[in-house]
Amino acid sequence: MQLYLIPPDGGQGERASARRRPRPCLSLTPIQRKRLRAALRNLRKAYGSWGCLAAVMDMAVDSLKGIAYGRDSGSPGTAQRAAKAAGVTVEQLLGGLAAADRCPTCGRSG
Q1: In this structure, are residues 40 and 68 in contact, taking their beta carbons and an 8 Å threshold?
Q2: In this structure, how many other beta carbons lie within 10 angstroms of the beta carbon of residue 15?
Q3: Which residues does residue 33 pair with via DSSP β-bridges, in sequence order?
Q4: CA separation for the pair 57, 48 (Å, rounded)
Q5: pLDDT in tens, 15-68
Q6: Does domain 30-94 have CATH number 3.40.50.1980?
Q7: Is residue 42 within 8 Å of 103, Cβ to Cβ?
Q8: Tens of pLDDT, residues 63-109
Q9: How many whole angstroms from its chain centre is CA 56?
Q10: Long-range contacts of 25-31 (CB under 8 A, 24+ apart)
Q11: Distance of CA 10 to the CA centre of its chain
């Protein structure tokens, strides 16, 4: 029995990348983005500062602020990190079980 080493591109050279199926584009709906922005602003208040929240979420402060204030659109990954920081599920964070301007944990408006 012989073993053959196959390069990471499957031995097809540069042509293999042209035949790859594109990944589905995952994005948040406008309502989910609104809820994520509200959740980030509430989490900032809970953690005390953007710097502390950014450290917990392992993200850059400018990225968080951009998403929270609507300059950038959030991603499902950001929503997942925010949910983890809040101690809730992504569905609870974005699902609309509470009003968008309320804390998903305690229900306090802010």
Answers
A1: yes
A2: 9
A3: none
A4: 14
A5: 555 556 656 667 889 999 999 999 999 999 999 999 999 999 999 999 999 999
A6: no
A7: yes
A8: 999 999 999 988 999 999 999 999 999 999 988 655 556 665 666 76
A9: 13
A10: 26/75, 26/76, 27/73, 27/75, 27/76, 28/73, 28/74, 28/75, 28/76, 28/79, 28/94, 31/96
A11: 32
DSSP assignment of the chain, as one string?
-------TTTT-TTHHHHTSPPPP-----HHHHHHHHHHHHHHHHHHSSHHHHHHHHTS-HHHHHHHHTTSS---HHHHHHHHHHHTS-HHHHHS-SS-TTB-TTT--B-
Q: Which amino acid is at 89?
A: T
Q: What is the pTM of this model?
A: 0.66
pLDDT given for residue 95 in this prediction: 83
Q: Tell me the residue type at 30.
A: P
Domain residue ranges in the chain: 30-94
pLDDT at 55: 94
Report which residue type is found at 79.
A
Position 64: which residue type? L
